[in-house]
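chain below, 162 aa
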Amino acid sequence: MNTIDVELTVNGERRSATVDPRKTLADVLRDDLELTGTHVGCEHGVCGACTVLIDGQAARSCLTFAVQVRGSQITTIEGLANDGELNPLQQAMVDSHGFQCGFCTPGFLMQITALLADNPTPSEPEVREALSGNVCRCTGYQSIVVGVLRAAGGSSIATSAH
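prediction:
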């Protein structure tokens, strides 16, 4: 099978890989570029664990072929912290105890990053809608929603379970 050279900008750094045309972006990130923060869960685009930003938009990297995003700007969970310091979203999630086991965390954080870029002050229903495509098996989602609202500076942080 023919291989294709793929050049991407990942977390602000030019990166390249030579890949099989059917190789997913998730696999290129994890296997070729050694960025293992992007997790692969269902491999069907249902769970959201593999969510990354492609040119600023949240996307499932398990459903995206690497060749489809040649020349794109990719942001992974590794790109959120600044010089080892958590960004405000990450800190808000820590402060709200938003996650437990951590497997789903990268996908949620990338989805939330896209949400807050488009809507810096979302309402609780908007947060819940944005996160409806991400699955967490450990939490009841309430602490995640609280963390998003805290990061957004929301004055009415959710306190009741839905």
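Residues 81 and 150 are 18 Å apart (CA to CA). Residues 105-118 form the longest helix (14 residues).
thats it, cya
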